[in-house]
Structure formats: C-alpha cells, structure tokens
Amino acid sequence: MKPCMMRDLFGAWNIPANDEEYARMIRRKTKWLYGLLVFGAILLTLGVLNEYLAFFPAADSFSDGVYSGVGAGFCVAAIVFLFKNKKLLGDAGMLHVKRIEEYDERKIEITRKVAVTTFTIFSVILFTAAMIAGFFSRTVFYCCYLGILLLALIFIAVTHYYNKRM
Amino acid sequence: MKNRIQELRKAGKVTQAELAEAVDVTRQTIISLENGRYNASLVLAHKVAQFFQLTIEEVFIFEEDENL
User: Fold this and answer.
1) B26: closest CA of chain A, how far (Å)
2) What is the rounded distance in angstroms from the CA atom of residue A134 to the CA atom of residue A151?
3) If exposure means fewest CB atoms within 10 Å of the residue's CB, which of A49, A54, A124, B26 is most exposed?
C-alpha cells in the first residue's frame, strides 16, 4: 500500500496546521470520494442488472436490492460530500471555520473518549450476544464470535501501528 | 487544572470568540476551559499564554495531586 493511502486510512488524528494544509487534505479526500462514487455506481448497476438478467443466480431479489441500495447510498454520499468539499475549497472563510470546528482539540478529545467507550460497550454486547446465540443458532454464534476475534485483531494491529509511530 | 483565562480575558476586554479565534479553537472550548471542565493540551496552553503575553505557569495552575 502506498504511504499516502496509509496516511489517509490511519490519519484520523492528523491535525492540519493551517488552512492551506486543510485544503490539501480535503483535495486528497476528494480523490477517495471519486473512488466511492465509481464503486457505488458499479454496485448499483450490478444489483439492478442482476434483478432483470439474473446473470448471477446465487443472488436472489433480496441480495439485488441490498447491493443496489448500498450502491445508491454510496453514490449519494459521495456526490453530497463532493459538492460540500467543492463549496469549502471555493470559500476561504468557510474553510477556516470548518477547520476550527473539525479539528478543535476538545472535540478530538471527546471523539477519542467516545471511540473507546463505544468499543468497550460494543465488545460487551457482542460477547453477550454470542453467549445467548449459542443456545439458538450456530450461524449467529459464529458471526458474533468472528466479530469478537476481528475486533481483538484490529485492536492489536492498530495498537502496534501507533506504538511504532509514537 | 485551574486557570486564570476568564480573569485575564476580562481584564484585557477580550471576548471568548476573539480568544477562540486567536488560538484556533471553538468558543465552546474556551467556555469549557474557563469552567475547568477541560484541561488544555500543551500546545493550546502555550497559545493561550502567548496570547496574554504571559508564561504557561502564570495562566495555568497545576496542582500536585492532579490526575490526567
């Protein structure tokens, strides 16, 4: 993976020092939005086409609906953010206000605490769900179990990443 | 951590919005700092102290038994 992709994926706490740097960050994010738009359009097309042509028989009408819905959602989100970013980049005053709002240190601290609390609560809920699901459905149990394992692995990987960086 | 932000701000006739703009934070952060609900980072403490042309120790009062 290219270093810039890593930076965009794990750079949630990278704080722009000034408006110019923030504008560069928005331009970089805009490139990802074009990718999201294309990905959404592909999902939407596949879902709609499969509903009528059934070139992938394993996917039933429900799956077609899910894929086309998710695709449409990605497209709408990408378009909304593309317009928002274009507006921001064209207005220096608005860009400054947005940077202060988005990277206010108290807000970042709140987000960190929210992330940790959410992670803890979600882990407990997932563990409880796995224990209860074990009585009724093996599939649901394994889904929850895999979720717990994934969470733990991601936690270890991200901790390792930040340990190396800080 | 206690601080003298409100006192210094009022003495200098500076509004919360003006201070917030000068140190690159929202007005809500200044309110939280003044109320003692939020402790400033070292960078923000430095910016605030610089704004009032004082040292960090003159603006922020660190108490020995404080925990982060």
Assistant:
1) 6
2) 19
3) A124
